[in-house]
Design goal:
The structure holds 2 protein chains of 2 kinds. By secondary structure, chain A is mainly beta. Helix content of chain A is 10%, strand content 31%. In chain A, the strands form 2 sheets. Chain A has a 5-stranded antiparallel β-sheet with strand order 6-5-4-7-8. Chain A has a 3-stranded antiparallel β-sheet with strand order 2-1-3, with no helix packed on it. In chain A, strand 5 and strand 6 form a beta hairpin. The radius of gyration of chain A is 17 Å and the shape is globular. Chain B is built from 15 helices and 11 strands. Chain B has a 9-stranded mixed β-sheet with strand order 3-2-4-7-1-8-11-10-9, with helices on both faces. In chain B, strands 5-6 form a two-stranded antiparallel sheet. In chain B, 60% of the residues are buried. The model of chain B has no long low-confidence stretch (mean pLDDT 97). The chains are: A mainly beta, B alpha/beta. Chains A and B meet through strand 4, strand 5 and strand 6 of A and helix 7 and strand 5 of B.
């Protein structure tokens, strides 16, 4: 948790760095503003809805739905086609991501998805989604 | 205090020019800009020494106004290097009008040039540099092919919500090409059919390479002066009746609604200042980076209701002979698109109002709208222009 009165190394880093550190540790967090109670993503130093100071980092349910989708066409020798989408989380915020583990043509708007964090070899943790099969949400 | 209503028509575009549109190998951005600037000043019946206001922006050089001023040998009392992507040169209008009205300056040169098609340092390097200079850490990891992927995402949402089809998008590209075929300056003038667009190589579904703007060289410039001054100059003045700029977001993932752009606000401001409505506009120039742009802007600027853009453009409705002439030079899709297109939309609007459209001239055009877009549907600037009889 952040507290402006503490000055340890950990709390001295910015919101982006702390959010990324959580991702690198496998945890996906969004923010919720203590003043207006609205969810915020991407994480930032103030609430874009009401202007209050840094919203708290909270764990989202992790479920949502594909809001917009595209297949980026790429030559097979360069890795082939891939998905880029915008997911709307059940908390109401959206983020760019990709849906993995299913044919590209099946990634459609409205598809229920569940977040997971992947850490590419030598890279930084990032949020991706898979189909939320068997999800009661 | 000068109100926006009082600024209505207070300034006029007295000179315009383009240069190096298409391919201009061996030239720098600055060389293309300077030639367009020289020609626009001459077109206005002025000399470079008369220019005491300068507005410009570059997609790569962040301090671009300074080398431009140095290169042109100016000593301007009014300087604006606001960078709002491709909407910049329309966004420059309102502050320039205020500077003219206050007497801060007397003649403002707005200019842009890019050799992005033929330069050795081009788009690829600019995009790579931006990853460091202007990071988007919450989008870049997913490797969107920007700007195309952003517009493809918006198109996917528009199709989902309103039943818009790839054929509707293709209508926009085909109309642009039909206009380009009437414009000797247009870069792509070969025939283009709906089937050609639908069968073209996909780049980011649902957008194909024919849904995407050109990558060309080119420069554009115009000169803005007070209306009373313009009346003493050789060209028929094209008055700025209203103009507005709006930004709601930078990233496509931060858009409040992927089917509605800030053109809703920039258009409302421009029409409000002008005291006109979409039905009063004779010719329309919209920043068509991609086909979806035209549908979004026709809706957001009020030429049709939200979601009806697809139906609005069907059956050649915005092509030559259609109900509303849109992008009469061929637009960014078929005429010219050197990184930022907004200034070319404005210049084509001026040429139409002056009756200089040649084969593509819209008969009796008295009012025109020019709309600029920047970023990935991020910044929006609208101008409503008119001849003296529209004042």
């Amino acid at each position: 948790m952040t507290n402006s009165s503490t000055t340890s190394q950990a709390t001295a880093t910015g919101v982006l760095a702390r959010h990324q550190a959580e991702l690198d540790a496998g945890r996906f967090l969004i923010q919720r503003c203590g003043a207006c109670q609205r969810a915020v993503y991407f994480p930032r130093a103030l609430c874009p809805h009401c202007g209050a100071g840094e919203p708290a980092m909270v764990a989202p349910a992790g479920t949502g739905a594909v809001y917009a989708v595209t297949t980026v066409r790429r030559k097979p020798e360069a890795g082939g086609d891939y998905n880029v989408c915008i997911v709307e989380l059940d908390e109401g915020v959206r983020l760019m991501s990709r849906v993995e583990g299913m044919p590209l043509a099946d990634v459609r708007i409205g598809l229920r998805v569940r977040a997971r964090v992947v850490v590419p070899p030598g890279g930084s943790g990032m949020v991706v989604f898979g189909a939320a099969t068997g999800d009661a949400a | 205090m000068t109100t926006l209503k009082q600024l209505r028509g207070s300034a006029a575009i007295a000179g315009v020019a383009t240069y190096g549109c298409g391919e201009a190998p061996g030239h720098t951005d600055m060389e293309l800009l300077a030639e367009a600037a020289r020609r626009a000043v001459a077109d206005a019946g002025l000399a470079m020494k008369d220019i005491d206001g300068l507005c410009t922006a570059s997609a790569s050089a962040t301090m671009w106004a300074m080398p431009v001023i140095e290169y042109l040998g100016l000593r301007p009392s009014y300087i604006d290097s606001t960078m709002l992507g491709g909407s910049s040169f329309i966004a420059h209008l309102l502050p320039a009008m205020q500077a003219l009205a206050s007497g801060q300056c007397n003649a403002v040169l707005v200019c842009y040039g890019s050799a992005q098609r033929t330069a050795t340092f081009g788009r690829k390097e600019v995009v790579a540099s931006r990853r460091f200079l202007d990071p988007q850490p919450y989008e870049t990891p997913y490797e969107p092919m920007q700007p195309l992927s952003a517009y493809a995402l918006a198109a996917s949402r528009h199709m989902h919500e309103f039943g818009t089809t790839r054929r509707d998008l293709a209508e926009v590209a085909v109309a642009a090409r039909a206009w380009a075929r009437l414009n000797p300056e247009a870069f792509m003038r070969g025939p283009l059919s709906i089937d050609d667009v639908l069968g073209a190589r996909m780049v980011c579904d649902p957008l194909s390479v024919r849904d995407s703007c050109l990558v060309t060289d080119g420069a554009g410039a115009f000169v803005l002066v007070r209306a009373d001054h313009a009346r003493d100059l050789p060209r028929e003045p094209v008055h700025v009746l209203g103009t507005g700029t709006a930004v709601w977001n930078r990233q496509i993932s931060s858009m409040h609604d992927l089917t509605m752009t800030a053109a809703r606000d920039s258009g409302r401001a421009a029409f409000g200042m002008a005291g006109l409505a979409p039905r009063d506009i004779d010719v329309v120039q919209l920043y068509d980076a991609f086909t979806i742009n035209v549908l979004l802007f026709l809706e957001d600027l009020g030429f049709c209701a939200k979601g009806e853009g697809g139906a609005f453009v069907r059956d050649g409705a915005i092509a030559p002979g259609g109900r509303l002439p849109v992008n009469t030079n061929g637009g960014g899709l078929s005429c010219v698109h050197p990184g930022m297109y907004g200034i070319f939309a404005l210049i084509e609007a001026v040429r139409q109002l002056r009756g200089e459209g040649g084969e593509r001239q819209v008969a009796g055009a008295v009012t025109a709208l020019a709309h600029g877009n920047g970023g990935t549907l991020s910044s929006q600037a609208t101008a409503v222009l008119g001849l003296a009889q529209a004042l």
